[in-house]
Amino acid sequence: MNADPQAKAGQPVLKVDDLRTHIFLKRGTVQAVDGVSFHVNAGETLGLVGESGSGKSMTSLSILRLTPKPGARTVSGRIEIDGINVLDLDEETMVRDIRGKLVSMISQDPMTSLNPVFSIGDQVGAAFRYHDLVQGRSAIREAVVNVLRRVRIPSPERRLDDFPHQYSGGMRQRVVSAMAIACSPKLMIADEPTSNLDVTIQVQIIRLLREIQKETGVGLIFITHDMGVAANICDRVAVMYAGRIVEIGDVETIFANPSHPYTQGLLDSIPHLGRRRERLYSIPGNPPDMQNPPSGCRFAARCPHVMDKCRSEYPPETTVAPGHMAACWLVGKSG
Amino acid sequence: MLNYLIKRILQGVISIIGASAIIFAISRLDDPTLLLLPIDATPEMVENLRQRLGLDLPIVQQYLIFLGNALQGDFGNSYRWEQPALQLILDRLPATLELAFAGLVFALALAIPFGVLSAVYRDSWFDNFAKLFAMLGQAMPNFWVGLLLILFVSVNLGWLPAFGREGFDSLIMPAIALGWYPVAAMTRMLRSTMLDVLDSDHVRMARAIGVPNRVVVWKYALRNAAVPLVTMLGIYFANMLSGAFVVEVIFAWPGMGRMVVEAMFARDFPLLQVGVLFSAILFVVVNLLVDLSYGVLDPRIRHD
Q1: CB-based contact A116 B123, cutoff 8 Å
Q2: Model confidence over A154-180: pLDDT tens digits?
Q3: 8 Å CB contact between B126 and B118
Q4: Domain B93-253 -> CATH class
Q5: Which pTM value belongs to this model?
Q6: What H or E segment, with its residue span, contains residue A224?
Q7: Chain A residue with minimum CA distance to B226
Q8: The CATH number of the domain where A315 resides is what?
Q9: Side-chain half-sphere of B281: how many Cα atoms within 13 Å?
Q10: Does the distance separating the beta carbons of B299 and A116 come in below 8 Å?
């Protein structure tokens, strides 16, 4: 690792500006990501929160330039990773210099994220082999053992030649994490890395990610639909709804003082111990059809505070406090 | 592993004995003596021949005698050729194996690139072409493919011999005719498995850490698609070994299939029995090899 991983902490490793990724289908265009801007600093964890279909995963795949083909395409915007606009690069450069080296991913389901017919050593070693960082079979083996040790896999030299099905769910997620950190990327995207794990294992993985971050100073995007998990690991939280970020701010601010009615609804949906309710709260209604999104605020149809203005004009991104932004007409009014 | 192997071999032996019993019973439904003797043969002559061939005994006893002799390597003489039936079949076996193997190589050489590339370039012109090709392949029976090949390549162009087994040239067209249908079937199957695999989380993960596309496709994804492919391959190879007679007849290929079919028409039971028995053995062996290959291809499949 670098001598002082914290040296660059605070500087942005990722800047996303007005990103638009659309899915082109025969029956129309789905505006999956529609004007998203945010940044992630070194050593920081940004939570990307929202329900299924809000564009979280499509945003992260856009950053990796791995949107599903054919169909999805990033149509405009800017994605700067460590100062490089990756939207300008060709596929060959992405493979050789960006993916794995500058940015990597920890994918959702540890049970399906490892190739079942190749050994752990082979798969983790791929990160080294195809970036020409380590040459030769035994050197790669050694590098793999080291990185497996970093994700706290017990006696890695003996488990190297095992296959994924011989690992437990939690251990597999550690292997996936090892693949992601192998080439010391500046940015890591964790797409719901804990949603398919037992609660006790979830805690272990979150702890592991924190430790890795402390060691390496990597910037982390943590995608989740679980506000509880977000509160646990994130420094800042961006709430996505229908392809846009509706609120972004420090984790304490978002939880203590949510300004967007959608964020408030999400927080109300968390079940609380000791609080008695007949039924769990859920936000009424469904997200809008993203082929023909409403011209006004996309949450208007479900919003308890909806006004006439909301239905016709999309609210501007308004600063509530320094570092706290919400896109809601109510913010300017009450503030 | 050893237990599994022994179990599978025993199962195979039972299958082979079962096949021999069935073909033995079916072939006794008709009386060969009427074909073997001149049309004006007296009833005494018929009875005489039946006794000589052992056909007057109860069928169970006949079968047990057959089994007993077979275990000693004696399958009787062919009625028609008046030579040991086993030797006749063994003489033809290399030609059949050669043709089936060539058909398999042809099928794989086309099906793997077609299936993989049409999944990678989904909905492109190549994919559409491969889909059309696969549909045509499955719609064209192999005898028709064989006749078309003879007509165009041999008769019109004069490039390749139309029949016989002399050198590599004469192998090309029968192999194509035999492999034609498997190419189509395997292309379609490989395309759909590859589409599934290429869409999987582990392929996305490999791409996310910067594994180049060619490695993702030809190593990571193809290996995952190999188990269903090998299953299909085994079925077609076994079919080619035993069911190639149509192609063998068209190209006058001196193989086992043709000899067995001719034996059937001639009520040449000893020859027919050995032929069917060999088909059964080849089926059992190929299936066993396919099952054993699963363990090599996919570490999750263990033969404990």
Answers
A1: no
A2: 999 999 999 999 999 889 999 999 999
A3: yes
A4: mainly alpha
A5: 0.82
A6: strand A219-224
A7: A117
A8: 3.40.50.300
A9: 7
A10: yes
